[in-house]
Amino acid sequence: MVLPGIKISDLTDVTLNGNIPQTDPAGWRLVVGQDSHGQHKWVYLDEDDPRRSSWAQSTVDKYWLGLDIVREEKENVDHAAKSPG
């Protein structure tokens, strides 16, 4: 199986040069299934996929990918975690 955004020719480069192809972290989205008992599934959207601009990464997506989270987003997450629910 080849990862989205990676061509077979890229995999040849791994064996010859030791380079490991990577996907763009900004393309990943985490989907939590409502009907599948909370199953987590990562979806990769290529740069030319129209859903990429309309489906923004959530703070949770960015957190698990190790991407920068804007201070304002952190405060919103902290506030939501502290509020009784």
Task: Describe the protein in words.
The chain is an alpha+beta fold and 85 residues long. It has a domain at 24-82. Helix content is 39%, strand content 12%. The chain has helices at residues 8-17, 51-54, 59-65, 71-82, and strands spanning 28-32, 40-44. A hairpin with a 7-residue loop joins strand 1 (28-32) and strand 2. The radius of gyration is 17 Å and the shape is globular.
In short:
The chain has 85 residues and is an alpha+beta fold. The protein has helices at residues 8-17, 51-54, 59-65, 71-82; strands at residues 28-32, 40-44. Helix content is 39%, strand content 12%.
Key traits:
85 residues, 39% helix, alpha+beta
Task: Draw up the topology in text.
Blueprint: H1 8-17, E1 28-32, E2 40-44, H2 51-54, H3 59-65, H4 71-82
Antiparallel strand pairs: 1-2
Succession of helices and strands: HEEHHH
The number of helical runs is 4
Shape: globular
Report the sheet-strand fraction. 5-15%
Largest sheet: 2 strands, antiparallel
Strand arrangement, largest sheet? 1-2
- Proportion in helices: 25-40%
Count of extended strands: 2
| Straight-line distance between termini | 42 Å
The structural class is alpha+beta
What is the CA-based Rg, rounded? 17 Å
Q: Please mark out the parts with pLDDT under 50 across 5 or more consecutive residues, or reply none.
A: none
Mean pLDDT: 77
